[in-house]
Design goal:
- There is one protein chain.
- The protein is mainly beta and about 270 residues long.
- The chain has one domain.
- It is built from three helices and 17 strands.
- Strands 3, 4, 6, 7, 9, 10, 12, 15, 16 and 17 form a ten-stranded mixed β-sheet that branches. Strands 2-1-5-8-11-13-14 form a seven-stranded mixed β-sheet, with no helix packed on it.
Amino acid sequence: MLKSGATPPRAKGAVRLSAKRLGNQSVLDEFRQSGSFKCLFPRPAERGLDAALLNTAGGITGGDTFRFHGYAATGTTLSLTTQACERAYKAQPGPYGQVTNHLTVDTGARLNWLPQETILFNGSALERRLLIEMEPDASALMVEPLVFGRAAMGETLTDIRLRDRIEIRRGGQPVFLDAMQFTGDLHAHLAKAHIANGAGAMALVVFASATAEGQLEPVRRMLPGSAGATLIQSDLLVIRMLAENSFALRRALIPVLRHLNNDTLPRCWMI
């Protein structure tokens, strides 16, 4: 039992891994893990390197810190996912739970950043940062799905703190930046017709590739009415999606992600 005024223990963890090319395969090179953050390596179906991140603390609350750095070396394919949905639990007043992901994609390499949903609980305080640094001829597919409370339990997010920043740089130059910050009653905010019309989940997908322009129309044909796709530039396709709940979001996301990832997805993504 904690003494009065004592600070409860915080979860901390870090993972660092890199892929290198060996013959025509992408294989593990450097790998380090510590604390409550682990990495699993399911057997890949193709010639890339697959890795699944796992938070053994079971979720994130105020004061927790998790850091990941992934590196796809020249000519490799690195696919990253999470073993399960991440959960941002109720936090005490004070510090945010922090998640920092830094991904580097070298010349001619391909990165797939495909984490499963992050579920926000009422009272949560979460700060996330994702930075993807790419060489000019590298490619990347990323998704960040976010679920607003546990719909099956009737939970509504009337009190949360959220900071989220996603940045992509190509050749050292910023090509995409998405940032949001919210404090307070998120349920009331999302209920507004011009904001989210009561949606319970959302996702951002970015496809950075020389083939992005040719994927715009095929992707648009796959999207539900609550989603949209646009080209920011010829090699950068951005998709935003709203859904009633996490199941509807995943059902809409899977065909799009499979299409943009050579008709394959990590097994844990399957409904």
